[in-house]
Amino acid sequence: MYPQNLAPIPELYVSYESATKLKQEAADLISHDLTPRQICDLELLMNGGFNPLKGFLSEADYISVVDNMRLADGTLWPMPITLDVSETFAEGIEIGQDIALRDQEGVILGTMTVTDRWTPDKAHEAEKVFGANDQAHPAVNYLHNVAGKAYLGGPVTGIQQPVHYDFRGRRDTPNELRAYFRKLGWRKVVAFQTRNPLHRAHQELTFRAAKESQANLLIHPVVGMTKPGDVDHFTRVRCYEAVLDKYPQSTTTMSLLNLAMRMAGPREAVWHGLIRKNHGCTHFIVGRDHAGPGKNSKGEDFYGPYDAQDLFREHQEEIGIEMVDFKHMVFVQERAQYEPMDEIADKDDVTILNISGTELRRRLSEGLDIPEWFSFPEVVAELRKTRPPRSQQGFTVFFTGFSGSGKSTIANALMVKLMEMGGRPVTLLDGDIVRKNLSSELGFSKEHRDLNIRRIGYVASEITKNGGIAICAPIAPYATTRRAVREDIEQFGAFIEVHVATSIEECERRDRKGLYKLAREGKIKEFTGISDPYDVPEDPELRVETENVDVDNCAHQVILKLESLGLIAAD
Q1: How confident is the model over 512-545, as pLDDT tens digits?
Q2: How far is residue 527's CA from residue 413's CA, in Å, rounded to a whole number?
Q3: Which backbone phi and psi does 218 adopt, to 5 degrees?
Q4: Is 55 annotated as a binding residue?
Q5: Residue 403, class by beta-carbon neighbours within 10 Å (0-12 exposed, 13-18 middle, 19+ buried)?
Q6: Which residue, of 55, 179, 380, 542, has the fewest CB within 10 Å?
Q7: Which domains does the chain possess?
Q8: Coil, strand, or helix at residue 154?
Q9: What angle, rounded to 10 degrees, do the helices at 266-278 and 307-319 form?
Q10: Contacts of 490 (CB under 8 A, 6+ apart)
Q11: With left for phi above 0 and alpha for psi between -120 and 50, is residue 8 left, alpha or beta?
């Protein structure tokens, strides 16, 4: 008999023959196209990573998990795994009906028998699961602004795994990992959860954890969805591969986990423990502020630094996996080694060095030195490829203001000045140019204007991602749409909002195109500033006044701002 942690666990996949038959029958079923987060959840449901779940939670299980961290039958499970859909889709589904679950290319991954359909109290879910209904928390923001309004629950039948074209040799199901551990004779395995690149402190920490537990080490990074702003998983996996040879090969392995993190701190730690137990691990390293999302809207941490460890310890026996405390490792200069902060007896007599994540990002963005005691040269080289200094990154300058405020004129002047400097391609996405080439079929309703701005944002994000400069000059009257565009672009580079603060009276006095006259006569409906609102930017990177100021001066103010942000540097 195998030890319990190495015996095979149940999966939700059917046999190859049944899957072939189900695929044909599924052609007649109503289909739901899964979101990236739902694909992550479905994969771990089907392969046993979310064992004992047999599908998306029923309403009774959901209520019990939200309120008590337990399924309705009393089993410990801290995270609601739900299939969120639009109200329209939910209304078209009957209880007991089978639906096909497809990826974004339309490939069928499984089917689900819908046993439950309900509208959740999302504010209550946020409060209980994340500790606060505060949209500064990425998962709470997702819950309210991205996830569907209705939830469906029911058992899932697995047909095939989602396809991953990247790092295929590094992706293992729970049963594949258990088989690997059996083959190598690994009885004790300590898992290390990470969503960040590994630096020297992490290496020291994982060495110590394995040594203290007398266990083998599984580096188990998350490559599904992490926190917005995190280093992309392609870069991270290259960083992990660069340092793997620093570990003893006979006692260390790495596998990738396609998990959509919720950044739920204490509950997330318990969830991660259950997932690692399913993958055959006996020990799990729980970090300081494990899976914390950072600051809330008042600027305070969402969770206390040791809340996750406390909750894990409380449920450790039931989880069935032993916690290894994450020590805060710092570099002691005199001894040229990493030591746990709370074990340094002579703190006052030695030099303690540490670099925070914020400081590391600053050094990368400004091209400053990153010392070898902090990180491995191979890791720094990978990070520098993805995060070159700011003066070599793409960025977007986004002008907003009333029609006739001077946005296009200043944008044109800025484009010429940036082209004169050279070094990066510059693209102007002016309102009129975009309307002609990208959005010729759109009208001027709120919905259409939003769509027009989102298109501009998409093109600007692609330009920024590829190292170019995008200059946008639409009216962009709505703050929520501008925020969404900012989020799209800031994944790839800087977003500089410039409010061209010309008064409506001055714009109407200029009225170069005669539009204000037509709007006053009621011949143009929904005209910004006359019959439709304009949300004045509260906190733009720059506000420029154009009355009695020449265009050259306005464009120069933008150049000075770009210099102060490090986006333009001296040669």
Answers
A1: 777 777 777 777 777 776 767 888 898 899 999 8
A2: 26
A3: -110, 115
A4: no
A5: buried
A6: 179
A7: 4-158 (3.10.400.10), 168-330 (3.40.50.620), 390-565 (3.40.50.300)
A8: strand
A9: 30
A10: 229
A11: beta
Residue-level length of the chain:
571
- Count CB-CB contacts under 10 A for residue 558: 23
Q: What does the alpha-carbon distance between residue 302 and residue 129 come to, in Å, rounded to a whole number?
A: 12
Written as one letter, the residue type at 172 is: D
Residue 402 annotated in ligand binding? yes
Angle at 557 between CA 556 and CA 563, to 5 degrees: 90
171 DSSP 8-state letter: B
Q: Which tokens sit at 293?
A: 């999302």
Query: From the CB of residue 352, how many other CB atoms can be counted at a distance below 10 Å?
Result: 13
- Report residue 267: phi and psi, to 5°: -65, -35
∠ CA 279-283-284, nearest 5°, is 85
Q: Is 280 annotated as a binding residue?
A: no
The answer to whether the beta carbons of residues 451 and 442 sit under 8 Å apart is yes
The neighbouring-strand residues paired with 340 are 329
Q: Quick check: helix, strand or coil at residue 469?
A: strand
pTM over 0.85: no
Query: For the segment 447-472, what is each residue's pLDDT rounded down to a tens digit?
Result: 888 889 999 999 999 999 999 999 99
User: Are 312 and 267 contacting, i.e. CB atoms less than 8 angstroms apart?
Assistant: no
Task: Indicate the residue type of 173.
Answer: T
Question: Which residues in 370-482 belong to E strands, given as ranges?
Answer: 395-400, 426-430, 469-473
Looking at the annotation, which residues are catalytic? 194-196
Give Cα separations from 443 to 472, 525, 529 (angstroms). 19, 11, 17
Q: How far apart are CA 155 and CA 109, in angstroms?
A: 14
Question: For tokens 């799990």, what's the residue?
Answer: 284
